[in-house]
Design brief:
lyase; eight-stranded parallel barrel; alpha/beta; citrate (pro-3S)-lyase activity; 13% strand; TIM Barrel
């Protein structure tokens, strides 16, 4: 089984400078929860791209670890058939290459799309990790999940499903609880098949005719953040009944005239002699993305859908576990008798029982994204990752 690891495109000297414990290898044969965390920034690419194989290979070399070949919203209705054949041809061409170590998915439109791909896919099965299931509901979900299970059996490989929650039934307050209860029961019956649950905030906003501004995060859009909170409450529990929930897409990547102040404090960049770098991040709208990633994590969400390669570095830089987080986690897991003790950094209290699950999740994330050296921050990681 060929493996990959995050930050592999950094040179060895840079990795040694940045990491106390470098990221460990992973593959689609890993334990499900670890693999879900390893997704990181999942980059979408239209299935109709003429240079699709070369694009995926290039992104793999640049540090992208998971990609979705998109046959849904990114493809016009009359191009779906061509896109499907191009997706299959690309997977077949990638088989046996270094890019095949990525976590590669196809976002289909209907369960029939899963069947069609399974029927004509050749050696590309070795490159395929699974399928993204759009507009997933309690009504549409069973057919999707059955199709993925049938494709797995037909192709002789365990293929994962990643449902996207974005439907009106979920968004509308009067139907949300019932819909989430049914989805939770449905996914529980396919637990080994569901890698992660993805949040489709763009479609949620569309239900109300909203398009959030680049000066705001999704957490400023109240009708959507209420849905996200309920999704995490029903499906993101850490008692063995939940799943990894991934963050919604950040849509912006170009310069614009700003209405509000930037979301990045200047102090961390001044301390690292990177003030000009901060200005470049702000000019690319990456300050809003960084803010949203931090809020994703605070709300129990891991990883993120991205639609531009420049967003990958931001997601991965904030996914690495800091020296402080790591040592807090190790201290918390050092005993099971409960109690409280001061952090080794002398800036907080660590309570062994309430913080135990956090610590376990932190060490799981550390295994795939690494642990930074003392004093290394996201500024250092971004500086090393972003082409300036």
């Amino acid at each position: 089984m060929r493996t990959m690891h995050h930050f592999h495109h950094m040179d060895r000297a840079t990795r040694d400078t940045l990491f106390l414990h470098p990221p460990q290898a992973f593959s689609d044969a890993d334990e499900r929860d670890r693999l879900a965390v390893a997704l990181g920034a999942t980059l979408y690419v239209p299935a109709t791209r003429a240079d699709l194989t070369a694009t995926i290979a290039r992104r793999a070399r640049e540090g992208v670890a998971s990609m979705v070949i998109d046959l849904e919203d990114a493809v016009a209705d009359h191009e779906v058939e061509d896109g499907l054949r191009n997706a299959v041809a690309t997977l077949d061409e990638l088989a046996g290459t270094a890019a095949a170590t990525m976590l590669l998915f196809v976002r289909v439109r209907t369960p029939d799309g899963v069947d069609r791909i399974a029927d004509i896919l050749g050696p590309g099965v070795t490159a395929l990790t699974g399928f993204v299931l759009p507009k997933f509901t309690a009504a549409s979900g069973p057919a999707f999940l059955d199709a993925v299970a049938a494709a797995s059996e037909r192709l002789g490989k365990h293929l994962y499903a990643m449902p996207v929650l974005e439907s009106a039934e979920l968004v509308h307050r009067q139907t949300r609880d019932g819909e989430l209860q049914q989805i939770a029961a449905l996914l529980a019956g396919h637990r080994d098949r569901v890698l992660a649950v993805r949040i489709g905030a763009t479609d949620m906003c569309g239900t109300f005719g909203i398009r959030r501004d680049r000066d705001l995060t999704i957490y400023d859009v109240r009708v959507v953040v209420d849905v996200i909170a309920d999704v995490v409450n029903y499906l993101g529990r850490t008692d063995g009944t939940g799943f990894v929930i991934t963050g919604p897409v950040w849509e912006y990547f170009a310069d614009h005239e700003r209405m509000f102040r930037p979301m990045l404090r200047a102090t961390p960049f001044a301390e690292h002699d990177a003030v000009m770098f901060r200005q470049q991040l702000v000019s690319r709208d990456l300050d809003g993305l960084l803010r949203e990633i931090a809020l994703d994590r605070a709300n129990g969400i891991q990883g993120k859908t991205v639609i531009h390669p420049s967003h990958v570095a931001a997601v991965h830089a904030l996914s690495a576990v800091t020296h402080e987080e790591y040592h807090d986690a190790v201290d918390i897991l050092g005993g099971d008798a409960g109690g409280v003790q001061a952090s080794g950094y002398r800036n907080k209290m660590n309570e062994r029982r309430p913080h135990r699950t956090w610590a376990q999740q932190t060490l799981l994330r550390a295994s795939v994204f690494g642990v930074t050296n003392k004093g290394v921050t996201f500024v250092d990681l971004l500086t090393a990752l972003v082409d300036r």
